[in-house]
Write a structure and sequence with these properties.
Shape: globular
Structural class: alpha/beta
Order of helices and strands: EHEHHEEEEHEHEHEEHHEEEHH
Largest sheet: 5 strands, mixed
Helix content: 25-40%
Radius of gyration: 19 Å
Strand content: 15-25%
Distance between the termini: 47 Å
């Protein structure tokens, strides 16, 4: 099969998304020096809308326009943050994930201009975040702090922090590293304090199913551990059928030995109820592990908890 001479890469037009595309372009060039790449940036409805994502249909607001460009043949490859790709429904018909890149840091970071840690923040400190996952966990662990709604890309949120719209921010470590702003981090939070979103730190490469030549080329960028972790996490979320207002968190870990584990949590928005599950795969494949952990949480009442949250 002959490799394509040009691969057109569609992505959100935010600085972070374009930085992610540059990583893909660099890895493609290293693996296939003769292939040229071209960036097709799009602005998604999720990027334009600064209100409640639920009113736009949830996380799909960040992928709809990207998917449309891919399906229409305007691009050959889409780069997504796995955490932004809805798992409660299938990928758009005719598309597939060709590869999951090696996983970056899954943790969240506190950004405080004075360099304080989360435990050192005084009562009433305003934390800028619109993430229901972060809000629920802060309510559970640091109820004396106040969360104020804040959306936009990481650069824009840092600008809002500087303008005084919040006293501190919670942002993904991997995102800050991708835009070369790890310098603003005052504390990296352990996963025990702030459990990450499903798919955190993983970039997925999506192609049209019929485009065998592009799939063949980009599949070489895939990382086996990231594939297993993403598969387990996304199946977990699929079985749970959480919506965009569901405080759900979790992460899988593929050990060098081949063992795979998945830890997951479901919260009420006020953080007063927390359901936990943690299982090792043993002989189970990743999808079966994800299903098993979801069932464990459903047995604890996750369905009723999720359904009770307005969306």
């Amino acid at each position: 099969m002959s490799a394509p001479e040009l691969i057109r890469i569609v992505s959100r037009s935010s600085p972070m998304a374009l930085a992610q595309v540059e990583r893909v372009r660099a890895e493609l060039t290293a693996l296939h020096p003769g292939i040229r790449t071209e960036v097709v940036p799009v602005t998604t409805s999720g990027d334009r809308w600064m209100g409640d994502l639920a009113k736009l249909g949830g996380k799909g607001a960040f992928t709809k326009e990207v998917d449309a460009a891919l399906i229409a043949g305007e691009a050959d490859l889409a780069v997504h943050c796995v955490k932004d790709v809805p798992a409660d429904r299938p990928l758009p018909a005719g598309t597939t994930f060709a590869a999951f890149l090696k996983r970056d840091d899954i943790r969240d970071a506190l950004v405080h201009p004075g360099g304080l840690t989360l435990d050192g923040l005084p009562a009433g400190t305003r934390i800028g975040t619109s993430s229901v996952r972060r809000i629920a966990q802060l309510a559970a662990s640091h109820p004396h702090l106040e969360c104020v709604p804040m959306r936009g890309n990481a650069n824009r949120r840092l600008e809002k922090l500087a303008a005084g719209e919040a006293d501190a921010l919670l942002l993904a470590v991997s995102g800050l590293e991708r835009i070369d702003r790890a310098d603003v981090i005052s504390e990296i939070l352990p996963v025990e304090t702030m459990c990450p979103p499903i798919g955190a730190g993983i970039l997925a490469l999506q192609c049209r199913e019929a485009d065998a030549s592009t799939i063949d080329v980009v599949s070489g960028l895939g990382d086996p551990a990231a594939f297993r972790e993403a598969t387990a996490e996304r199946m977990f979320l699929h079985v749970l059928q959480g919506h965009c207002n569901s405080p759900i968190a979790g992460f899988a870990v593929a050990e060098r030995s081949g063992d795979l584990s998945l830890r997951a949590r479901v919260f009420t928005p006020d953080g007063k109820t927390v359901l936990n599950a943690h299982e090792w795969a043993g002989p189970l494949d990743p999808a079966t592990l994800g299903t098993s952990v979801a069932v464990a949480l459903l047995r604890q009442g996750a369905r009723e908890l999720i359904d009770s949250i307005a969306h």
